[in-house]
Amino acid sequence: MIQIQKIDLTLYRQFSFSLISLIEKNLDLNLIGEYLNEIKEIGAHIFHENINLAKQDLQDTKKAISAIDIPTDPNFSVNENFVFGIATFVAIFSNITNPICYEKNMPFRVHKATHSNVKDMDAMGIKLLNLEDKLGFHNDGVVQPDKVEIPKHIALFNSFIGYKDAGYFHWVPSRLWENQLNDKDLNYLKSNLAVVKLTPTVYEDSNGGYKKEGPSHVRAPLVWESETQENRFFLNGDVSDENNERQLVELFSSLRESINNSPECISIAQQERRAIFLNNTAGFHARDIFADPISDIDLSRIFIRSVDSNCELCPQSSPIEF
Ligand SMILES: [Fe+2]
Questions:
Q1: Model confidence at 244: pLDDT above 80
Q2: pLDDT tier for residue 128 given thresholds of 50, 70 and 90
Q3: Confidence at residue 113, expressed as pLDDT on a 0 to 100 scale
Q4: pLDDT band, very low/low/confident/very high, at 72 (cuts 50, 70, 90)
Q5: For the chain, which domains are there?
Q6: For residues 69-82, average pLDDT
Q7: Nearest 5°: CA angle at 132, between 156 and 80?
């Protein structure tokens, strides 16, 4: 088990007031990209203890995960707590690593789901936002036009959860699990490329619609050795009979099966304003489905996701479209 850190309310308040006096107007979510350097600098000063502990946990490959609860200030409005909560999350992650910045220098993407758009997402085959589907163990990849990369870190933040039962987030550090694998299987996986059908990545565009990003399939090894001679894994989406040798399909499902049954699994309750940071090259994550929606609210989740710009290459990988 890991220790879940808590940001002290006094520090959260101090951080928020520092931003208010710097910006001299209300912090809007869209301004976070513009003030990213300041948010990082102020955060480094105010949250240095939390950041250092998070870094230690992430570097320790027997853990490789860190969770931090961000408080709400009862003197702030709902919107202020929403924005300062995300700013705190950004401040911590940008001091752990350099996140990928998207439009307007925003270091994260917002995934907003409502019960009424679940049907649209079903039609697109989207699992990421469809909260009533279970996401099995995987690690996150970034698909570039010519290759697949594994971001060194991923940061997740549930800003709002419209369910009474949010279940758990699960993490298996690969260092504690991989000794179950035998050399023969590992060598086979290292020397044979798989065709992987990816779990679609989606985000909300500026018109409030949903966009699917990237190709449907990639060709990639499921296991390889890093520059530091550690085993690396790409376990994402689905490896099916259609495009792969029987042996590869069987090994892929046995890897998933053994991660699923791993006694080394660290489970953390999914809660609002709990930030989770992952050393994404050093483990696999999954989450429980959300159940028992809060009635009368169409909004079901606001989820923030940041991705490290530092990546490791998945060797010999390439995207493919069928
Ligand atoms: Fe993921």
A1: yes
A2: very low
A3: 84
A4: very high
A5: 5-320 (3.60.130.10)
A6: 96
A7: 40
The confidence score (pLDDT) of residue 26 equals 77
Mind listing the pLDDT tens digit for each residue in 4-24? 999 999 999 999 999 999 888
- Ligand 1 centroid–CA 156 distance in Å is 9
- Find the 296 Cα to ligand 1 centroid distance in Å: 29
- Cβ distance 62 to 176 under 8 Å? yes
**What is the rounded average pLDDT for all residues in the chain?**
91
Q: Which amino acid is at 127?
A: K
The CA-CA-CA angle for residues 240, 242, 246, to 5°, reads 65
Could you write out the three-class secondary structure of the chain?
CCCCEECCHHHHHHHHHHHHHHHCCCCCHHHCCCCHHHHHHHHHHHCHHHHHHHHHHHHCCCCCEEEEECCCCCCCCHHHHHHHHHHHHHHHHHHHCCECCCHHHCCCEEEEEEHHHHHHHHHHCCCCCCCCCCEEEECCCEECCCCEEEECEEEEEEEEECEEECCEEEEEEHHHHHHHCCHHHHHHHHHCEEEEECCCEEEECCCCCEEEECCCEEEEECEEECCCCCEEECCCCECCCCCCCHHHHHHHHHHHHHHHCCCCCEEEECCCCEEEEEEHHHEEEEECCCEEECCCCCEEEEEEEEEECCEEEECCCEEECC
Centre of ligand 1 to C-alpha 23, Å, is 34
- Residue 139's CB is within 10 A of a number of other CB atoms, namely 20
Tell me the CA–centroid distance for residue 295 and ligand 1, in Å. 28
pLDDT tier at 126, thresholds 50, 70, 90: low
CA of 184 to the centre of ligand 1 (A): 28
Higher pLDDT: 76 or 295? It is 76
The Å distance, Cα 140 to ligand 1 centre, comes to: 5
